[in-house]
Fold each of these.
Amino acid sequence: MKAALVTEWGRHPVYTDVPEPQPRDGAEVAEVEASALTNLTRALVSGKHYASKEIALPAIPGVDGVARLADGRRVYTGALGYSGMMAQRALVDPAGGVDIPEQVDSVTAAALPNPGISAWTALSHAAAVKPGDHVLVLGATGVTGSMAVQLATAMFGAETVVAAGRNTERLAWLRSAGAHATIALGEQELGAQVADMHARRPFDAVLDYLWGEPAAQVLTALTTSHPAAHHHRTRFVQIGSMAGPTLPLDAAVLRSTGITLSGVGIGSVPPEVLGRARTEALPTLFGMVADGRLELRTQTRPLADVAEVWDAGEPSGTRVVLTP
């Protein structure tokens, strides 16, 4: 069969022939209909991700996707043993799939779970957002950041959601999709904007998809704009590092405010929370997409183009999905 295959850490996959997967231990071979090209998928086979040690090369990438089971069911699932979903067929656990509503096409269904579960986990578990909260999403114009903005309002009832990002067109759209205010990075001074907003109405939660210098500016602004005598707990949740893996931060920031730092990623979320994300949150997210309450932009490309799209980057706010 045809598949994407990575043979060397940090190199893009090649479209080639590979052996057919073989059923074993209750798992079955399913026909893959779509697999999303996510940052996690890229990172795992870069050799630099902290979970890369679980992968042996050569490997077929594709953390998750949509597959058609032998009984005809169309499910969102992950491949077993990292055989990968970027192939014509993959070995999957038929009991571990999540059924997809007929109203949701396979490309959208493959693209939704990665950003949807990540945003839901950050909002519900790490940030513990509740109705009436004031939330800042740093890096809101990306796929997952945009999802977090929408869910913060529509699912978690945040009173105010501020979206910060570089793409002004996406920021304008977010104003119609759940954001109550926006900050255009590169055009508006991030620290000053956050400091002013935090002084008027303290942020309860910050979801950070950037890290690096933007995160340092926000953390400093949260400290300087709110008097230490008026304690307010701001839950700062680190999720992505598109602006850099490190940041300069004065130690006094964490001593002089109620900021708490945590992260969302592989290994940082309890299994029971991830279980609820799949069994409770994901069906709800599929339903929200089906009835138009949640929007996710996708770009479909044939699996044969995997080498071309792998290093091309992701169109702003759009998830690339590969189909065999």
Amino acid sequence: MSELTDNDITHLRRAIDLAGHALALGDRPFGAVVVDGDGTVLAEGVNAVNTTGDVTTHAELVAITLATAAGHAEDLRGATVYASGEPCPMCAAAMVWAQVGRIVFAAAAAEFGPIVPGGPSFALTCADLVATSNVPVQVSGPHLGEEALAVFRAAAKA
């Protein structure tokens, strides 16, 4: 696990804030922020599965889709995606296809899964999936410990 910069922590905390926003809207508590190599935020996303009825509207995919729609498809190459929770295999694969350079997540699926059950789960971690590709993507997480899990605990109480 690599050491985080102050900017990494800021973006991870923003992803966690977005997860709280998703929860307030009635969705599962996941948020994501996409930042290019220059530190510019390209897009943010929240889980919208319940509100849209579309099972592919995970926070990371929403953020990637919004960045692409805003004309930033090329800027995704080498970008960093910050996620409040460890990306699932669908999201991790999409990030490989987008050729992001880094995936940084706050809470591990093994930690938040038991707190907020109900969705499918996988034994394959984000890092495991990314490692099977031919795209060099760094995966870093989990980070921020209890702070990262707080939004999931709030979801369990809701």
Amino acid sequence: MVPRSIGILLRKISGRASIGKAWFTTQQSHNSKFYDAIIVGGGMVGSTLACAIGGDTIFQNKKVLVLEAGPQVKLKELPELYSNRVSTVSPGSKKLLERVGAWKHIENMRVKPFQRMQVWDACGDGYLTFEASDDLEQAINMAYLVENNVLITALEMELENLRSNVDVLYQTKMNTFRIPSPDTNDVDSPWAEITLEDGQEFSTRLLVGADGFNSQVRKNSGIDSISHDYRQSGVVATLCFSEPTKNIVAWQRFLPTGPIAILPLTDSKSSLVWSTTTSHAKNLVSLPEERFVDAVNEALTDDISKNSLSEMASNLLHNVLSMVQPDYLGLQIPPRIAGIEKNSRASFPLGVNHSSYYVKPRMALIGDAAHRIHPLAGQGVNLGFGDVECLWNELRQAAIDGQDLGSLEHLLRYETARQKDVAVLMGVTHGLNTLFSTSFLPFVIARNLGIQMTNVMTPVKKQIMDYAMK
């Protein structure tokens, strides 16, 4: 009888063999240049993996190639205006960026920490508050807001320090690639092979797809993905307050059309991420600035579709909880928005994607190439950083075990570990977006009572915080 673990491994391998013969090779090209790892996509996630491998002493004799379709982002100096594309970096992701040497560059540029978060329902009085620490004198940062161009520049700066191990080709696109068939003798077809649009050919032990949710690596390898169009768009902008504050709170309000969030950038500016219907998003982007600012303030403060029965139930529970927990905080109001930075408004479509596989022989997917979630939890890039850390650890273990970087055994361990984490968060974000995108009274009452109960259940909130800060 075949042991269960071996049987699972064989089924996974055989499942990855079901792609067209055009993508397999039985002979290694003798004219190709060899790299131990080739990373397709030099964004935040791909560049972090390149820094991790290139700066790790266990891989000191390994060579890494990064292929980036766009130009180099490196900022010679910080622009006066803040970018409207930002990422919420968790403390766990910060530690990873510290380990790969990029965080010191970020600190020398621009980064804004926050210590508190408030989430509330526009259709009722239910709300949740999260504090990174109860000790105000030793406040722990819940997360850090970093502009994407700052983050990428920091990684590019660190890659410059790793030029002996890492090569980066900008404005370079992949044309085709081939990966070895699992039922082909490794002597005949040992490596993954890649051809660029300019005709250059490379061979590698491990090909990593970090090329976004429209990943060419995923598509060309025949990996299916489950996708869902939310029929929503995210509107982003840089908001200016009427007066400076400490601005250490991230605010998120659930509207029937989708959540609106403002995240701290400075003491007087925040970044807007407003998920709403596609038609509403188009209208918001086209509004005159004054009317847009009014729309944001109204979305953050106005009563929307509140029902007297829902309010009565919510107020009753609120009074009970206030007696049980005297320090039970009331709902706070976010700062008033006075304007927006010039040309900072934009919108982008929202959807969810999840790849059926993350790995095949000598190939792995990371970041949005493997999974894409709704931005309401602010965890998209952190999932990608989690992929990097997990894959990095498995590659290190492969080296310790005397195997090469393309060991399918270790790639499968990476896939199993990451799919578990991603599936949980994907289910939570999709469920929350669905639950709050309705003003149906029974749902409104149930979710508001559930939110208020959760807000006083310290152990539950701690579990949520621990997960979000990983």
Amino acid sequence: MIEETLAEAKEKMDASVESAKENFSSVRTGRANPSLFAKVMVEYYGTPTPLQQLASFQNPEARTLLIQPFDKSAMKDIEKALRDSDLGANPSNDGNVIRVVLPELTEERRKEYVKLVKGMAEDAKVAVRNNRRKAKEAIDKFVKDGDVGEDEGARGEKELDSITKSHVENIDELLSRKEAELLEV
């Protein structure tokens, strides 16, 4: 019983860490990267569609990205979605591809991104702690109902705490790497 609860909690905590990693990749650093556009939604025939489903990406230079739509009729919509996004990109269209040159990041903008990433990390940690709380409640219920002994429940809680601690440390490590990447000039 306790092992199943711990396994389920670990699985959910792993998902929270992966989610944080995904969110971090969508925050831009000094380089152009197709993952920056993962959350850009394009109004395509009246339906919000992820940009990555509508185009292919090429990265010819550090701060330049070429976006080639699969459907040329979607070019205007893609351009509008890019302009409206919070990436600070100014797309230019030559009829075949959309060229996006990302501006150099200012120190102020880098610091804003660091704050944003710290907020994402805190959200991930809260999700991990919520999973810990639910698992702890389940273990306490097993002990209270007499399904397991108090010693076994205490051991389960200790193991749960170590799982939680390792996941929080993992998120902190991801955060410090992303922070260093953002502040690197």
